[in-house]
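request received
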Amino acid sequence: MAEGGVQEPFARAARQREAERLGMLIFLASEVMLFGGIFAAALALRLEHPAGYVDAAHHLKLWLGTANTGVLLTSSLCAALAVQAARNGQARWAACALWGAVALGTVFLAIKGVEYAGEYREGLMPGMATTHFEGRTQQLFMNLYFIGTGLHAVHVTFGLALLAAAALNRGARQDRHAMLIGNVALYWHLVDVIWVFLYPTLYLAGVR
Amino acid sequence: MTDEPRFEHPPEERAPSYLAESHSLRSWFFTTDHKRIALLYLVSITLFFLIGAGAAALIRLDLLTPQGDLLTNDGYNRAFSIHGIIMVWFFLIPSIPNVLGNFLVPIMIGTRDLAFPRLNLLSWYIYILSGLLTLYVVVSGGVDTGWTFYTPLSSVYANGAVVATIVAVFISGFSTILTGLNFIVTIHKLRAPGMTWSRLPLFIWSHYAVSIIFVLATPVLAITLLLVAAERLIGIGVFDPRLGGDPLLFQHLFWFYSHPAVYIMVLPALGVVSELITAAAHKRIFGYWFVAFASIAIAVIGFMVWGHHMFVSGQSVFASAVFSFLSIAVAVPSAIKVYNWTATLYKADVAIDAPLLFALGFIGLFVAGGLTGLMLAMLAIDVHVTDTYFVVAHFHYIMVGGSVTAFFGGLHFWWPKMTGRLYNETLGRIAAILILVGFNITFFPQFLLGYQGMPRRYHVYPPEFQVLHVISSLGAALLAVGYAMPAFYLLWSLLPGGRRAPANPWGASGLEWTTSSPPPKHNFIAQPVVVRQPYDYPLAHPASRDDG
Amino acid sequence: MSGAVRLLLVWAALMALLALTVGAAFLPIGMAKPWVAYAIATAKAILILWFFMEMRRESGLARLAAIAGFVWLAILIMLTATDYLTRRWIM
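response:
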């Protein structure tokens, strides 16, 4: 009764596709709530210390953060193009676009690394011997910054692994493959959306 | 349509039951069958229930005397912390959803399994991993933060295995999220032909509602605990006033999860009771849509009431007023359910079996817990009784009197379906009454204690409170007997020669009663097609109410 | 319009919004600044959800699932802010 590639308990491939996509979207909703705690903490910090928050954010590297936003948005574009190519049966194009997304995601992490290194040199990284903050609010802000962007970077790394796995996976039947790419891309886009909100919360807040 | 599979009684010989299908250990530990995973959960949560109950026994023994002669101050703190942490995250939250829900959700909607069977098994393994870590915490000396991990106690001053406990609860959250995700997708995408939303059993509605909370609340607990761990390990200061952080932020984030978590514990119980009441009354539920949407309303409004845990914390008075109003509002859908159950029972030819006794006990205790909850939602009263035994009694009425009673009721009701055996009905009725009586003797005096000012989490108290404490401890002993009884007669029913259950021992409606007891591996011999409303009593075919 | 072209146009719009939000951050608009920044971030998120995540082709159920996290986050943010914004009220 089952078509090829359909797994228990589904009888039809189309129904299974819908279910997998819905499952991924629900998982992403829970990811939004995970970062929700960070955003709520940033909000509390900003409302309690409005001026100190802006001063602390001013020390972040706005242009690196802006560049990273552009990089991640472009990486998302690649993932969206990969989905479209896979659906049209252009497996080679899809793989190329996926590797493009992986490359840009890696660039994002590299820029993030450069940023972290700079903050380490300036003594803004918490818990280091060279650390010296201007005040309590700055210390608090930088801690939150590292937790937030660190958690995001973990998600980026995980997303890169998924994207690479999708790019390498050619064995699966074509429609399963398109489905897989579609779900991995959803995850990748959400990582992008979270960054889109982290950017004004952390970087833009510091423009005086 | 001529054939109505929902009243079909397939001969048990036609397909081996899910229990008989294979007996190897491998077939249990690597199973993707939702019914077997439900039994894995049943065994594991029972183990944690025993540990949590052991801690409760220590607490009640210690409170027999005003000086707290049994435990040291620190030992007492650890006893109630372990009791709370294990009972909340390792027994109550997984109890009904992961045992009864896992077993019944696919069968009730007429499908072969949950949408993601391997994910379901994974969530059991995650639960076990977090459970093992908790056991490590218990044997390595425990934790003294209470189950609420309030900062700065947990982040600065507590000296138990706080980080290990936090990691354990953090990991267990993934198990809950995956279960919730699985339920939502299953209910949306795998309903049998003809199983429209208006034909869903109310048990399914309440599990749908609880899954929403699983998915959307649990991650907030995860990030909050992560922040507490980071606070403790590297001092990030978000919750630390010395750095300009705000301890109240912890309470906001924690209760954003933990108040809905109360509904995680009680919503599935409401679903169970709807099934038990209709089956005992052999009547259609009164006001199906009201009961169904009350579950959804509780799930949604339940997210907007958390501030009532913080009335005396230094939260703004305006916010307290807002939360107070919303907390009173959430009582409306709960009350709707109680009225509708009562209306369902009205003039019904009620079968007084153990499941109904548990369900009636649930209603009484839930009403008492709910009404005292309304008192606590009101600012003025709450200020008077905050952090007293009044609060302790209130939430035990909901979580133990409500959820645990419903869990036992559901376990009795579906035991024949899960195991294919009938338990001793007389003993079942005695246990149900014993639990109701024992529970009230244990916890009603705590309302009085709290109203007179006995604070929670203290084990040394003024001598004038001793009488009520002793009554409470004696009630706890009775309650323990009540809880232990089912363990014996339910297991007894499994022995060779135990009475075999027919497909539908209660004469109840619902797809789960149309398949054999226990069901075959894929739940049904043929794909069921639903043509009738839920609770379509009297049954079209006379009920097979033979006692084996 | 071919799919790839549409995606490229959306990407161009996202880049334009990025430029806009940086520009707006340097404008002397005082208290309105975070509101503008978050409004633009929301616009970007809507574009990503609607076109990149293909919510425009999805069923209502999938859209509901995609939006649920944000709605619940709004509950968390709004009620938490209710406390922080009114703590200094004298009552």
